[in-house]
Design goal:
Elements lengths: L4 H14 L8 E6 L14 H11 L7 E6 L6 H9 L5 E3 L6 H12 L2
Helix pairs in contact: 1-2
Length: 113
């Protein structure tokens, strides 16, 4: 509970942009079993605002991609798909938490192609 998914995604994206390394995969992998649940936090942003900021700050010449992996029925895959798509990446769902490692390996392997 109390997951600040959107604020965390934006902070990680900005960190990678600020520390971009030419010639490397510059990506964020977000692994979550839930959704954005940070009620009452005045610093938490909406999904719409997150997507707006990601699209505005994404630089195709220095791409930082956000790969999202949901690993439970509670994962907000609609939001995760939008977050990933805003940076040209994919979202993944692992129906079984025991399969997360395989999904993670597939996600980061596919990101380089």
């Amino acid at each position: 509970g109390a997951t600040a998914l959107y604020t965390t995604a934006l902070a990680a994206f900005r960190h990678m942009n600020a520390n971009y390394v030419e010639g490397r995969l510059n990506q964020v992998v977000i692994l979550t079993d839930g959704r954005n649940e940070n009620p009452g936090d005045p610093d938490e942003i909406t999904l719409e605002r997150l997507l707006e900021l990601l699209r505005a700050e994404f630089d195709p010449k220095r791409p930082v991609r956000i790969i999202t992996i949901g690993y439970s029925e509670d994962a907000d895959m609609a939001a995760l798909e939008q977050i990933s798509a805003a940076t040209g990446a994919r979202a993944y769902l692992s129906q079984d938490p025991r399969d997360v490692l395989g999904v993670f390996i597939d996600a980061v392997t596919q990101a380089g192609t």
